[in-house]
Request: fold
Amino acid sequence: MNRYKYLFSPLPTASVAILSGILAMIVPPAAPLFAADVESIDWSPIPVSKPRLFYPGQSDYQWLRTAEHKKAAEETKAGEACLRCHKGEQKSLGEILVVENRLEPDPIADKSGYKRLSVQAAHDDQYLYLRFSWGSDGAGQGNVGNLMRFDGAKWAWWGNHRQHQAVLDDGQPAIYPDRLGIMIGDAKVPVYPEQGCWMSCHNSLPGMPEQADEDEVGEHPVISQLYRQLGIPITNYLVRKYLPGSRSEGTDWAAVKNEDKLAALRKQGAFLDLIIWDASLTNPVGVAADFNVLEIKKVDEGTSPLWPNGKMREGPKYMFDKGKVGFSALTEADLADPAKPKHLIVGQNTVPFDASKIKKGDLLPAHVLDIAAAKGSAADVDYAKGVFENGKYTVVMRRKLDTGHPQDDKVLKVGGVYTFGFSVHDDAAGKRAHHVSFPATVSIGPGKADIQAVTLK
Ligand code: HEC
Reply:
């Protein structure tokens, strides 16, 4: 032990300089790590996999373990793979679950139950590259995010997802951004390779049968803290995705393990990595958001490019720069005009908010994008660009195989096989109203997997 201690004890700067001089003479320089130019990758020879996505209704972790999951509860509890019994059933499951049934009390009219996602993967020495395409069920591009409206006296949320009360009961428009979710994990997360996303979906989540009481969530020291960090006044506290391993009593949302235990799980890699590309909240600055799921779904450490637009209901912080875009705020009619920008991008089209420029009925995005401020683990997916053409999205993204942030990202190794879960939200769908895949394996380089990331040279 002493010997190692000696080796690693700091050397005076002069000796380091001499030593590295000697090393440079005897050690040949390592070959530079190859990284492709993400914009010029030729995707045409790279195989296309087409995971089957379906509407899952309220088929949460808890329901899957009840007798209602006929002849499968014990097997599911024992960790058996969904696909062992449901292979090839995605389309029929989706068609059953998307209309009113025991797992869907609140169906969305005319929603489709099934979707094919196209996935291509490649890697080099440094990065994993992913290319996705899918047909959207929306009438057009869903690239408008949450909005705030000035009613002449105060600001209030305006527009929401299709199953939101404001849309169903208060006549607000269904406006919600289109998104693609990619969940990444491996056997370090118990039962994730077998049951994928369903390990993170619980009956206490929003829109689920036992949705947690908002006041109780708001008072919970761990769960509410993540909301408080945003610094915005919130009334609707929700429980977000979490893993059973993070709970001390069964899977109860409130029974969060203590900090030391959570830190140990994180160190073991017993969390999920979650990347979300969002047509409104990330795509305008060409990136994707980087989350992780353990005790809750939260943004990775560091600084995200996505920020609330001030304290929102207390008044926005930014508005559009009229000199650049021709207006200070949007109107309802502007939303249908593709030529009008819908996103506040700091450094490009914003000025500080000035109430004297605002009229009754004006709209402003509830978020701002500040790409120059993005740093650390939250900014790991530094390239994610999507285009919408003829009803179809195509998104290309990259992420370092090893981001250098093992506390909230999965470290991917060449030759390794990982489990991915995919989700698509479209047509103003929110929360659980998405299409999801059963777990799919992805190998970095050749390997036994559903999707192989081709090695670029
Ligand atoms: C041991 C086999 C088995 C396993 C493992 C299994 N299931 Fe099932 N599942 C079934 C059977 C059998 C049914 C009942 C089919 C029916 O009612 O027609 C069912 C029904 C369902 C339903 C309800 C469909 C309906 O008709 O209402 C859903 C949703 C579902 N399973 C999802 C899953 C998911 C997700 C997993 C993995 C986490 C899973 N199942 C694991 C066998 C299994």
User: Anything to note?
Assistant: Residues 1-14 have pLDDT under 50 and may be disordered. The chain has one domain: 48-455. The pocket of heme C is lined by residues 59, 64, 69-72, 75-76, 80, 82, 84-86, 93, 96-97, 103, 195, 198 (CB under 6 Å). Residues 20 and 26 are 10 Å apart (CA to CA).
